[in-house]
Amino acid sequence: MTITEKKEELRFVTDRMFGKLSTWLRVLGHDTVYAADLKAIEEDEDEDKAIAAFAKEEARILLTRDKELVTLARKKGVQCLYIETEDVMAQLKELLRYNVAINLEPVPLRCSVCNARIRAVEEGEEAMLKEKSYVPTSMVWTWNFWICERCGKVYWEGSHWRNMREMLKQLQ
Fold first, then answer.
1. Which one, 1, 2, 6, 27, has the greatest CB density within 10 A?
2. What is the pTM of this model?
3. What is the DSSP letter of 79?
4. 59 — alpha (psi -120 to 50), left (phi > 0) or beta?
5. 11 domain residue, yes or no
């Protein structure tokens, strides 16, 4: 199967086996809903049907390791990819082998926790950054920071961004 949409248009939904993959896809700027975060699934007794219905309704590419879910989703006309590997870097590589045009550069677009959009922290909001115990406050005037509009998580390009870039170089 080949996915031919533009990078910025790729929208995914992942099953419960892909928490790490969901996080990585969000870090790479892709709109990715993790099945465990779907409220409709909590109410639905048949999780596979709920995930497939959500993927179809939202026009999302379904990523799963569940062969039965693949069959069900494809019968409903959902774009679905069966991912065989367990390691998250191998999963990203597998998406590339499927010709899914995923971005391979971390970008400050989506919250890795809740998938909402993040925005640049603006001048005058420095006090908010200093309230977060995990933010390197000594760098407030040096680095760019972003904040999630939904959950308030703060992001910046620290050493973790360099580490992610190094890991992603293996895929290129």
1. 27
2. 0.88
3. -
4. left
5. yes
